[in-house]
Design goal:
There is one protein chain. The N terminus is likely disordered. The protein is α/β, with parallel strands linked by helices. It is built from eight helices and ten strands. The chain has a six-stranded mixed beta sheet, sandwiched between helices. Strands 1-5-2-3 form a four-stranded mixed beta sheet. The longest helix has 18 residues. Helix content is 32%, strand content 25%. It has a domain of 68 residues. The chain is globular, with a radius of gyration of 18 Å. Bound molecules: adenosine-5'-triphosphate. The site of adenosine-5'-triphosphate (ATP) has 10 residues, from α2. Keywords: ATP-binding, Cell membrane, Membrane, Nucleotide-binding, Translocase, Transport. InterPro entries: AAA+_ATPase, ABC_transporter-like_ATP-bd, ABC_transporter-like_CS, ABC_transporter_ATP-bind, P-loop_NTPase. Belongs to the ABC transporter superfamily. One of its GO terms (molecular function) is ATP binding.
């Protein structure tokens, strides 16, 4: 492929179309295999929360890794803000550094600890700043990962199934936390999830990927905080399950 194939971080490029993130004609192949991302177009507005759903192998993680600049593109282009953070399913904390040191990893300045404490308090980990990562529960470790992501004040936050490994109750608490943090920080968010209810609780839009293409792009026009009991929730759940080819009758 000799067409334009690039990831352009930087506010100037992102200003195009008024969107924070613009994906245009994005195609990704591994070797001679089929296109895992197939001429994909997607725009995310500043401060918009987008959930990305799709069956296993539909290309969600590949898209996220490409947006993060961790994977090259085969064809097409991506423009996005310079300041991005990613949270993965596993916390990826360094076990030989304390929680606060993990939170400000790669950052300098005399106020590092103070900044770490502030953001750890924000995610509800103020009592564990000096703990070692291996002593944290799964939920606490993901809180620390969120703190490390937020301390960089990203304009674009990517979350790759961040709560998939947590028990159902902890997951609900973490969803509430992410919702609160997003309302406070108002960065653009792309959340990869298999959980339709999680998408409906959190996102402004749910995008369903199928074989590397967008099959459905569904606005979620519900005010927050959202309730599972809301009749609109039931309706949108049905639409999304249909888009995923899952029928709940
Ligand atoms: N490094 C790689 N080399 C070859 N093929 C790959 C590589 N990474 C991903 N793929 C393939 O690309 C396709 C999409 O993978 P991807 O991980 O993006 O899917 P996904 O939607 O995130 O799946 P899951 O929900 O299971 O995480 C899959 O068929 C996968 O096998």
């Amino acid at each position: 492929m000799n067409a334009v194939a690039q990831v352009v971080p930087g506010a100037e490029a992102s200003a195009r179309d008024g969107a924070a993130v613009v994906v245009h004609g994005l195609t990704r192949r591994f070797g001679d295999g089929p296109a895992v991302l197939d001429h994909l177009d997607l725009a995310i507005a500043p401060g918009e929360f987008v959930a990305l759903l799709g069956h296993s192998g539909s290309g969600k993680s590949t898209l996220l890794r490409t947006l993060a600049g961790l994977d090259p593109v085969t064809d097409g282009s991506v423009t996005r803000p310079r300041e991005v953070s990613v949270v993965f399913q596993e916390s990826r904390l360094l076990p030989w550094k304390r929680v606060w040191q993990n939170a400000v990893l790669g950052q300098d300045g005399a106020d590092r600890r103070a900044r770490a404490v502030a953001v750890l308090e924000e995610v509800g980990l103020g009592h564990r700043v000096d703990a070692w990562p291996l002593t944290l529960s799964g939920g606490e470790a993901q809180r620390a990962a969120l703190a490390r992501a937020l301390v960089r004040e990203p304009a674009f936050l990517m979350l790759d199934e961040p709560f998939a490994a947590l028990d159902a109750l902890t997951r609900l608490k973490m969803q509430r936390l992410v919702s609160d943090l997003w309302i406070r920080h108002r960065c653009s968010v792309l959340l990869v999830t298999h959980d339709v209810d999680e998408a409906l609780m959190l996102a402004d839009r749910a995008v369903v990927l199928e074989r590397g293409r967008i099959r459905t792009d569904l606005p979620i026009p519900m005010e927050r905080p959202r309730r599972h009991a809301d009749p609109r929730f039931e309706h949108l759940r049905g639409v999304l399950l249909d888009a995923l080819g899952v029928h709940d009758d």
